[in-house]
Design a protein that fits this description.
With 118 residues, this protein is an all-beta fold. The chain has no helices and eleven strands. The chain is globular.
Length: 118
Amino acid sequence: QVQLVESGGGLVQPGGSLRLSCAASGFTFSSYAMSWYRQAPGKERELVAVISSISTRTNYADSVKGRFTISRDNAKNTVYLQMNSLKPEDTAVYYCNAKSDYIGRNYWGQGTQVTISS
């Protein structure tokens, strides 16, 4: 069965750092593009970062460019999001997503809470 399990969320002060992990199972991880989304209370879910399946090209939301880094380890079936210089507006539930346009599949994790506060 397909599973995406996020971890690494928590409470940090502005300017701090946090690394999120998403462990995948039940599908061919290396064939899927992996993404991180986030959703704050009262806001729509937004794309934060994407990493492609083969070339590992990356794209980021303008609001996180230069601060966040997405990476993947296909041997561990895991995608990461390194978050630096965190701001209060980064507070949200962060979700892991796996997507294959080729096969027409799209999977979501349950999310992990990230809170940036003084």
